[in-house]
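Appendix B. One record, verbatim.
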Amino acid sequence: LAELAQLDRLPDVAVGLVQKELAQRLAASPGERAYGGLAGLLQALFTVQVLRDVSPEVFRPRPKVWSSVVRLALREDRPAGLADAAARARFAQFVRVLFGQRRKTLRRTFAAAVAEIGGAAAVLPADLGARRAEQLTVDELVALWQRCEPDGFGPTD
């Protein structure tokens, strides 16, 4: 699913069957325990919708877990900075590093995320320093990435 976000041409709609726990993670909101980097990455580009749960009873052999049908619909209001595949790949790397150490604050992880993408020197906004990545909305994640994006999408102070 992370690679889906990095395709040259994003699909208008993608529907898939995944384990129920993954579906819950993909659709989670910031601040929820299930919210993580993959959710932030995909939600920046797609509207994520869990359509239905699927019982293990419908499979042979039966798995030990429930599954869910997930629909990803391309957001019409997706950030312009994520228009090309290379930018989306850098955004994915940035998000992966920010969420890689979930218990650390952005004050501790931001510099490593900037370095990972070869980003421009950027100052972390003071109001974000004490927060953790999983507390950021998708828009905040994108704006933070844009501040340090090498192509210069956003402000550096």
